[in-house]
Every structure is written in C-alpha cells, then in structure tokens.
Amino acid sequence: MLMPIPAPLIRINERPGGAEGQACQAVSIPDQAHQAVSAPEPPFLVAAVPLNGFVPKAPTLEELQLVQRMFFLAGDEMPRVIVFCGVEAGDGAETVCARTGEVLSCLVNEPVCLMDANLRAPTLHLRYDIDEEAVPFARTAQQSSRGTSPRDSSLWVLPAGALRECRPGFAPDSVRKRLSVLREKFGFLLIAAPPLSTAAEGFLLGQMADGLVLNVMARSTQRAAAIKVRRNLELYNVRLLGAIVNETPERKGRAKEKKDDS
User: Fold this and answer.
1) Is 200 exposed, middle or buried (0-12, 13-18, 19+ CB in 10 A)?
2) Torsion of CA 165, 80, 185, 48, to 10 degrees
3) Which residues face 113 on adjacent strands?
4) Which among 59, 114, 184, 229 is most buried, taking Cβ atoms within 10 Å?
5) 37 phi and psi, to 5 degrees?
6) What is the largest CA-CA distance in the chain?
7) What is the enclosing helix (H) or strand (E) of 61?
8) Rounded mean pLDDT of 49-60?
9) pLDDT per residue over 82-139, tens digit each?
C-alpha cells in the first residue's frame, strides 16, 4: 500500500539555460590573418524508446491519489522532472516510478518519459521487455528518434543502456545536458535513481530536477539511514516532494490471512 506523506517544500532550483551546449565563435586574434571559428557541435540525441501499444493496468486508489497530490495539486509549481529513489536497496523506488509514469500518461496530453538512472542494477528495460545494452536496442532507438515524435506515444522509456558512457559514475555536465534535452522533448520526466545510502547519483539528479520522492520500506528501512539521507537532502539543497512508505510482501500476506480468517 502506497502512503504519500507530504513534506516541506524547498524552493526549486532554476532550470538549466537553453544556451548550454550551443556552438560558439572564437574571437579573432590580431596576429592572425583570418578569423578562427570553432567547429559546430554535433547534434545531441537522446535514445528513448516509445512504448507503442502498451496498456497500463488500472491504477489503485493509492496510486491515483499519489499522482494527484504530486502533480495536479501543486498549482503553478507543478514538477516536470522528478527523481524517485529509495534509502536502501529494495525500497521499491523503480516500481513506484514506473507506476507513477504509467498512471500519469493516462491523465495528461503530454508525453511522459521514464528514465532508468540506476546504472548498477537497472530494471526498467526488464519491465517493458526492452534490450538494455545490445545492438537491437540501439537500432530501435535510432528509428524512434528519427521517425517518431514524442506526441505519437504517451509513454516512453530511456533504459540505462543509453547512459552507458556515464559508467561507473555520472559526469555532471553530461547529465545536465541530457536532462535539458529531455525537458524540451517530453512534458514529464520521471527518473529511477539508485538508493541514496549506497550511491550519490540521486543527490546529483535531485539538484538538477524539480524535486525528489523518497521511498522507504515499512519495518525494513533503517531509521538511522533514513534520517541521514533526509539531512543530506537538505545539505545538498534537494527539494523533497514527499515520502512513500511501501509495505513488505510478508506483511501484506499476513494482513490478507487475517482478513480471510475473520
């Protein structure tokens, strides 16, 4: 059961400027007889795959409430780029990210993109049966970027394989450029990041995004680890949109057994 817990909002960092990455012209030097002009940058492409024909399952009441609170009740400060990550591994951040994107894509007229930023243990390509690394995926991505517009599909996915040049860590300038391109291409970008207790990518992405949603597992996530992560989010000036408490499967099973017995 998903239980959204509102958290104090912090001012959103300004979005990256549109002039980043543009080719620049070198200043002429008096000693030289000609003006030197830098070579133009090649176009920057982001290989996202459209999920044409994918039909999400019907949302639960908790999932609908989560999407409504996160997006439609935010007013003028509606977040467009959100990072989902857990405190520890197994907190269910990837599933919550995917389900939020699936539900959102059915409620808005703008394209939604799911980005798998967990390079150590990617999962989104498995959920949607997409090849994460191989050549067929690259060919599909190339075709989609040339012949398919984001308006032609309501839900897209950017597997971790498209970020393979960032391994083993993230280069801030490269990631910032990708997010800038994705902001322009899609109406909403939901990012599944690795757990904050074991990796720093979530903090970096959180600074560049409009906010972060923290996932914890009931009776499993260490309280001390959660407190430390919360303090680090404030330290790095990451806007915390809220926290989601996921029930453990064992606890769900016991609750169902008690209901059947009664």
Assistant:
1) middle
2) 40
3) 156, 189
4) 114
5) -120, 125
6) 92
7) helix 61-67
8) 89
9) 999 999 888 889 999 999 999 999 999 999 999 999 888 888 988 998 876 533 333 4
